[in-house]
Specification:
The complex is a heterodimer of chains A (about 240) and B (about 400). Chain A is α/β, with parallel strands linked by helices and about 240 residues long. Chain A has eight helices and ten strands. Chain B folds into two domains: about 180 residues, no CATH class; about 190 residues, no CATH class. Classes of the chains: A alpha/beta (about 240), B alpha+beta (about 400). Chain A: InterPro entries: AAA+_ATPase, ABC_transporter-like_ATP-bd, ABC_transporter-like_CS, ABC_transpr_LolD-like, MacB-like_ATP-bd, P-loop_NTPase.
Chain lengths: ~240, ~400
Amino acid sequence: MLVMKNIGKVFTTDVVQTHALREFNLNVSEGDFVAVTGTSGSGKTTFLNVAGLLETFDSGQYTLDGENIQGLNDKQRSQLRNEKIGFIFQSFNLIPDLNLFDNVDVPLRYRGFNAAERKSRIIQNLERVGLGKRIKHYPAQLSGGQQQRVAIARALAGTPRFLLADEPTGNLDSDMANSVMTLLQEINQSGTTIIMVTHDQALAKQAQRQIIVRDGKVCDASETAAHIQTQAEITPSV
Amino acid sequence: MNLLLNIGPIFRALLQQKFSAILVVIQVAITMAIITNGVAITWDRYVHIERESGIDEPNLFFLTSSGFSQDFNPRASIEQDLALIRGTDGVIDALQANSFPLSDSGNWYEIQTSPESSAQLIPAASYKFDEHGINTFGLTLLAGENFNQQDTLWLEEADSQWPSHVLLSRATAAALFGDQQWQKAVGKTIYVNHNTPIIVKGIVEQLYAPWVDWAHVEQTIISPARVTHNSARYVIRTQPGRRDEIMQTLTATLAKMNTQRVIRKVKSIQQAKDEIYAADIATVSILLIVIIVLAFVTAMGVAGLASFNINKRRQQIGIRRALGASKRQILHHFMLENALLCAMGVLLGSIVTLGLNVFLVSQYALVPLPLYYLPLGIVSLFLISQLAVIKPAYRAMGVSPAMATRSN
């Protein structure tokens, strides 16, 4: 469903070239819940940006839901992003000047749904995350956990095939983090494929599958198993 | 996606950033009020400057012959001078005149259609021209006929005698006999100084009074007379393109011909016009500069605020891009946001424009603003504002969707 073969991404400045991704290979099947972990600077966020079509890649092949990404223009990439991918960001990334209704409405408007369809989806998804009665509130009037729930509602409103989550509990306390993780698991169980970037091993363990990124590459199976074992010994469970 | 459907959320978002929104709205409103009133005043002055006085302005000049010796014979001098001038190569015609359009000096009288005291008095500037008046000034005779040589009187300066016939400008005839009846003035008797009867011999199309700001500038009356005076003013019409050359040669010839006088105040009608309208031209120029500067400053202000808002919202733009907005949709978003602010600005601006006009009319006796200036002002400000925001909006288009995953 999401297939990356030998993806390379290089950032070039006047003085240095940084290989953020090199020969990056990944295969994610429909319904997977994949946790992507790695140290800071390992290439996790670059992977997320490339997978979410937020950035282009320099080499390799990337197929999303059967569609070859290479060669798509900006408009096609925007459309694909809008229709197939939902994003959940570490700092929620709600638009502060819009109330919850309008925040969830943003991707739906770009999608071109009519007003009735949009309203139904917005209310349904805000209710799903437990915020159906607060549609006129603004993000600043909510707690961090509630804001992340709104972000999840926004990500789900367009019924995407993939949910890409970038440290979704990074800014939350443990109770709220658990509640968000529970919600993500429910979403996954309802059939949505989730790829979650996190440095939190305890969260990563809750995913069906864990991959580790090091120096812009996916570690092989034995390395991953060893890493998970080491992390399990030093990191207490949440 | 239908662009206008996005007005709702954009408007609601603007209400959350009231301060910067109000700044733009006020700036647009004030600029519209000043620019619209400024353009109206400028146009009014421009029309005032450019209006036709009814005479062949480009080919006319005048000069004054001032006798200084005790033996100086004004009448003989005028007759000799006019004979010489009219016989000069390149001169179409010439006359001696007490006054003429754009000369800024002369007399006016009240005329009426009957000697009764209840009759309406019509003010009219009085010119004394001989039968060469129509040809010298290039006037168009609409009705009746021109004077002949026998009509023309020689008058002393203090003489209060009126010739038996006059010509009227069309505006004078219309003021006396009505807009539809002006042609019927020919042959009718009118009265000057309440009870001096004069017969209307003809009507000329247009001939302005000497004073450009006079309220009845189009109302003039021509009587066939020459005034003997030591200082005689001649108006000379030349063939097109020969005015300046003849001005020089004729001045020298006249000076040589009679040494008992001096030739002075040699000036083209165009020069006289430029001098008379100098203040108006300065007003128009200053107003135009103010309007252009103000429009530029407003455009810069709108662009500056838009740039500031866009820089402040780079991550928000990245989020929108991540959520599926195309570059064009980002451009539309900011153009529409600005259009909304501008619409509020011109709405408020329309009220301020009318208010400012009422103030100007009451305080400075300016002409009330024609209402069609409002839509012109609205469209102009809208365009200025939208043009100003294009560049910042294009910059917003360039924000990468990856901005959404970068920390604040």
